[in-house]
Amino acid sequence: MPKARTKYCPSCNTQGLRPTSNPNILGCKQCQGLWFEDGSLNHAIAQEHDCIDQYDHELHLGPALRVSERLCIRCRVSMTNYQLLVHYTTEIDCCPACDGVWLDKHEIDQVMHSPKLKQALTDLNQKVSWKSWLFQFLTAMPAEYNVTPQRTPWVTRTLVVLCSLIFGVGVLSPEASEWIFTNLALNSDTHNPAHFVLQLLAYQFVHGGLMHLVGNMYFLWIIGDNLEDALGHGAFLVIYLFAGIMAALAELLLFNTSQGPLLLVGASGAIAALFGLYLVWFRHASLTFMIVIYQKKLAPHWYFLIWSLINIAGMVSGQGGVAWVAHLGGFGLGLLLGYLLKDYVLRKNPLIAMLNQPEAVVRR
Ligand SMILES: [Zn+2]
Ligand SMILES: [Zn+2]
Q: What are the residue boundaries of the Peptidase S54 rhomboid domain, all occurrences included (predicted)?
């Protein structure tokens, strides 16, 4: 019986490749890379994504880059380096003769997720359109470019509905409005501890005017859905309410009560904390910024840097009527929580983790 030819790992070059549970896939014990015989990679990707039909025939690769230093384990010819996707710069080795593919260990997840990565990067790299231009020109609100959430953002929607309902009741009935502001707004003169704790939660759902409400709810709507998706419903709600409480306490701490008591309403503090989380976890997302009539997609860190500078300027100039300290305090808390929870969130969300890698190319 002829001795089977030893198959060398294209990466380590010394260790023989071993068969895996799939006869068309060989694995290296030493470097944990995988070899896919012709076509079996597409099949594996299709199985991972329940889309066998779409991925039958070919891997949707980016451009061929150069001749690889590695040899095909079957044909012994040099393989070719391909970029995984047009907008994802991971390089994989493919054999031009037999269509076999070699994946290093760290590339396996990226390749298996490549249909989702491709869709996400198509969404993220959309150019600003006349619709987004007109929207921002008329409303002064940014358009957001981010991946579509997997779960329905029930908490975000409920928060928006609750805030809007409370505002609507106040508009319809002046008595109700007075009751809401007397009992639910945060008042530094409240002496009953239980009532004060209630106000710390309730003030976040009360808004002083239509523009105050619409501005807050719009930002909650566009960034809350992605954050809720990344964190899960319960954790998102807990962080949102906790941030609102801490933002109020920050405002209270620095408030000069000699000019009368502090009366605080609005979701801005909690939403500013969401800005911090968003900046840390969604480096691939974009928010549009408009200078007079020129609209530009900005990375979250640029967008929120500008937002912070406006708030710092407001705080320093002592302009009244806006809780600058609550905004900045909430934002700082969001940044801190964002860094502390980053590993956990990226572990739970492999797609977000891959979009955080330098290999993801986002055009702005
Ligand atoms: Zn190896
Ligand atoms: Zn080959």
A: 198-341
